[in-house]
Every structure is written in C-alpha cells, then in structure tokens.
Design a protein that fits this description.
Number of helices: 9
Structural class: alpha/beta
Radius of gyration: 34 Å
CATH class of the largest domain: Alpha Beta
CATH topology of the largest domain: Rossmann fold
Largest sheet: 6 strands, mixed
Order of helices and strands: EHEEEHHEEHHEHEHEHEEH
Number of domains: 2
Helix content: 25-40%
CATH architecture of the largest domain: 3-Layer(aba) Sandwich
Number of strands: 11
Length: about 325
C-alpha cells in the first residue's frame, strides 16, 4: 500500500493545510545595520534557519493530516493456500440431543436428553478442533431439522465460524429431519461462488431419510455440477457398527438407503461410523489429511488507521525545535 491509496475520514480538515506557511511569514524583525558589508557571510546559520522553519511547517502539516483521519480502506487480496471450501451440515433433530453413548450403554440406562455429552455438543466440540487445524479453509454452516437454515455463508473469518458452531449447540432439537433440503442448500451455496479449489460437505447426523426420485436427481446433479465431495459422519446407535469401516452393515433402514444412494453419486463419497470419542477425532483427522489441495484464498485486510505515523513525525520535529530553542536560550544567557 502506498501513500496515494490513503483515504480521509475528515477530508474537510485538509483545507487548513495553507497554515503550514505561517513559519515563513516575516515578523518584521529585520533591522538595517550600518556598515553591514563588514558582517561576514554565515551560510551555516542560514541553513539552520531554513531547517528550523521547515520543521515548523512539517509540524503544521503532520498535525493537520492527522486531524483529517487518514486510513487505508479494507481490502481483499488473493493468496495461494492449502485446504478446501467446506460446508458443515449439523443435524438439529431431537435425537441429536441424546447422550453420545454406545448402543450397549444406551440400552442399559435411560435415554434422557443429554447436556454437555449430547451428540450435537460432542460433534460441535470436535468440529471446533477441526476448524482450528485448517486456517486457510473457507467455511459455510447449515443447521437442519425439518428445514435447513444457512447460518453462515462462505467466509475466511474463523472467529465467526467458531461462534456459529458454538451457538448451534444451544436449545433443543425438533422431531423431523430433512437431510435432502440441507444437501441441496449446501450445493446452492457453492453455485454462487467462483471455483477456488477443493469442495467438500460434512454431513453430521444420526439418522437417514427416504428420498424421493426428484430429491435424488437434484442432489446428484448439483453435487456433480459443483464438484463436491461428500462426507457423512454417521453418529447413529446401530448394533454391529465398527469405527473404521464404512456403513456396509446397516440394515435396509432409511439410514442404509441413504448411504446406498450416496454411493451412487458420481462425485466422491465416504461414510464414517462414529461409535466413540476417539472415532470422532480419528474421522475428522482423516478428512483433514485428505482435503489439502491448493486453494485460492480471499484474505480480508481490515481498515487501518494511519494518523499515528503523522503524530510521531510531528513529535520528533517538535523535539528537535525544543532542543534548538533550549540551546539558543542557554547561549544568550551565557553571552550576558
């Protein structure tokens, strides 16, 4: 950024700039000295006088420019990073408020609504850790139950992403789950974006949905058109699941049917069975290692105030003038 890119928050103050010529206005102290030709020339004194007047003018200029509130405006610059554009879909259905336990533990005890250990809170905890590992990623966030809510469009501001993820842990879930609408809305988020690099959707849910032919067609076409990789982090409690295999053992439930449909997509799909805390961590680490392609990142450089450099320069010039005047006063007193 150069000085020509500066903008002014109070540009009307710049009309005071002519005040900088005040040190050069004669005070009428010149005196006629008889036999002035006998006074030797003193170029050093002339140079010192010009320098002091220039410093005084500089002080006026710097103070006026500082009062005009100079700043560099907010800018967006592109840089090359490593990562992906990721839309996170989190299920807000009522079942996601159940405790995050194994099927054995769930059958042994009562199925009460979880608090800190609810599936949704546990999922968000690991999602936050995942986000922290990926500084170059652009994230979007969708929360869904019977409807899909796009809480955050694509952004590089990870503070905003973390805030939305934390907020999604609050409240209670609803009784219905509309995964199809969430997936379609995720694809629509990519539709309005230029292609910057790898694209992925993280679906975090503990249930499935029987899709209509129209919904299947919309999802298949949109994912293919936008070149989206789909990850399903399945946190259901179904007997026979293991932590490191895909969901091939699921019976013909809506969950299994949805998984079978995902495998017919022309774009990459991986389903993960989340059966334990460690499994959750390992799954997100696997995704973290896979999504490391080159990515064009739009980095926002915030507005930057530039009045301090002018104030610092004015302070230095004032200090020099103060030292000069002090030396002059001491010299006059010594001469007397």
């Amino acid at each position: 950024m150069s000085v020509f890119e500066l903008q002014w928050g109070a540009s009307s103050v710049l009309y005071l700039l002519p005040l900088a010529i005040l040190p050069w206005i004669s005070k009428g102290t010149d005196k006629t000295i008889v036999w002035s030709s006998f006074i030797p020339a003193d170029p050093l004194s002339d140079l010192i006088g010009l320098t002091l007047k220039s410093l005084a003018s500089l002080i006026f200029l710097c103070l006026i420019l500082s009062l005009a509130k100079p700043y560099y405006p907010e800018q967006t610059v592109q840089r090359f990073g490593s990562g992906a554009e990721i839309v996170i879909l989190v299920d807000r259905s009522r079942s996601m408020d159940d405790p995050f336990t194994s099927r054995k533990d769930a059958l042994a005890g009562s199925r009460t609504v979880g608090k800190e250990n609810s599936k949704r809170r546990v999922a968000n905890k690991y999602l936050l850790a995942f986000i922290n590992k990926r500084p170059d990623d652009r994230f979007g966030f969708i929360l869904f139950s019977n409807k899909a809510l796009a809480l955050l469009s694509f952004t590089n501001n990870h503070d905003s992403v973390r805030a939305v993820v934390k907020a999604s842990s609050l409240g209670k879930g609803l009784s219905e789950t509309n995964i199809a609408q969430a997936l379609i809305k995720a694809a629509e988020m990519y539709a309005g974006e230029d292609y910057h690099g790898s694209r992925a959707v993280l679906l975090v849910s503990d249930g499935g949905q029987v899709l209509s032919s129209q919904e299947k067609s919309l999802i298949r076409d949109s994912f293919q058109r936008e070149k989206i990789t789909l990850y399903w982090l399945y946190v259901g409690e179904i007997e026979g699941l293991t932590s490191n295999k895909t969901m091939s053992r699921l019976p013909k439930t809506p969950d299994k049917k949805l998984h079978d449909f995902f495998e017919t997509l022309s774009t990459p799909y991986i389903g993960f069975e989340i059966a334990s805390m460690k499994n959750f961590s390992d799954t997100l680490e696997t995704i973290n290692q896979q999504q490391t392609e080159g990515l064009m990142v739009d980095e926002i450089i915030p507005r930057k105030a530039m009045n301090m450099p002018f104030l610092l320069l004015a302070m230095i010039a004032s200090l020099i003038l103060l030292i000069s005047n002090t030396i002059t006063v001491l010299g006059v007193r010594k001469a007397h």
